[in-house]
Amino acid sequence: MRVHIGIGKAVALALFALPLTSCGNPFDRDPKQVDAGSLGKDANADVRAFYEARQWQAAWDGKAEKQLQQVLDGAASHGLKRELFLKGEIPEDKQDRELALTRAALAYASALARGYSDPKALPRPYTITRPKADVATGLAKALQEDKLAEWYASLPPQTDEYRALSQAFLRYARLNDVKGSVPDGKTIRPGSSDPRIPALAKALVANGYLDGEPGASQRYSPAMVTAVKRLQAEYGLKPDGIVGDGTIAILNRGPGDRARQIAVNLERLRWLDRNPPNTRIDVNTAAATLEYWRDGALRDRRNVIVGQPDWETPELGSPIFRLVAHPYWRVPKSILEDELSKKSPPYLAEQGMEWRDGRLVQLPGPKNSLGDVKFDMRNDNAIYLHDTPAKPLFGMPERHRSHGCVRVQDALGFALLLAHDDGILIPFQEALMKPDEEGFVKLKKEVPVRLMYRTAFFDDGQVRIADDTYGWDDDVAYALGYVGRPPRGKVKHEGGDVGP
Q1: Whether the model pTM is above 0.85
Q2: Domains present along the chain, CATH in parentheses
């Protein structure tokens, strides 16, 4: 929501039409009362609710305004720009000033409590539960109790991850945005010499990985190797200190790119419910990892394979309601038309596929694209978790290779873990003992799943960065007022199978 400062022409005319005081100045009315008509018929609902609760009494005296200004000055710690809420000079007119401060106060509170942008307005599905916040009532109470700063501090996520991303954002935002300084070339190994070493040292300093002034030495020093390993670990690369094309590309983006990426992911955290289910499965589709939480504790973590570019896995909140042993794969129309329509009957037969009731179906077996188990989920996007016969793909650093569904590493072991925790282990094992028969075993209690796209996140006590494979960071960055960075190209799919 953008903050609009000032009043429109119609409102100004209405104010001048008010009866004049004895001094003849239309603005010499009671400054403690807000004119309801000045809001206009299209006024923000939170603003109207705020003043209705106060019986239209003005809210901002000098002390409260100073406190709000101090709160807004801290917007950068959340990856937000102050001018999103209060831009330019505050109006001198008492009525205009009052409304401008209220709009800014409520807009900033809403941004912290629910996010500045609306994920459901993005050009793709988003069904993850969002937080609910009555910012109008909260602001009124905070002003009444003189606890404005404390109230605002309570609105964003109160997690170690949010705090770590906030600190990382500030660190990178304070650096000079130097980029593109390291030329491409042959691989640089620890202890070697290279004419690009001074440029590499300069880039490491500019990006906050190396302290001190870069020298002119062409020797790849141990201190530089340590700095490169730190960068590589943060970006999910093998931390071997070997400088190749990937490491150079990251350095050349500059700290400004990293700050924007972290700001985007602070926003994504604000979109999330502050009290997620204690038992749930969270999939980070940017990093291609899965976490299983049970009763508030991390129970399991493993790699997954998610949608490739142009077949992106959407951001969904969708529960698993049953396990399917030896599932049939009913080939979706899109995959049939794009990849299988021209295949010969012998090829389809070799893959265990046959036509049933006018639809191509792959039977259970070693080549079945769903493997030994499917995790059925409730959503309108035909997205679910499942096994796969393509096991080696889980060991690859780039795992955006599916047609949108989520393939789980050691899916059978994960299914047995879920079945054990839910108390359905025996019936699920019985279903597994019938390899030629599709067996459905309903969970006693559905397990919520959140499919989230997170390109900056907190893992093992450290902020880590994942590549923006889908290019989805751009939409959020633009909504937050970060401009000037060209959209990043998508990672090309390097081949694979036709499975979902």
Answers
A1: yes
A2: 9-156 (no CATH), 277-461 (2.40.440.10)
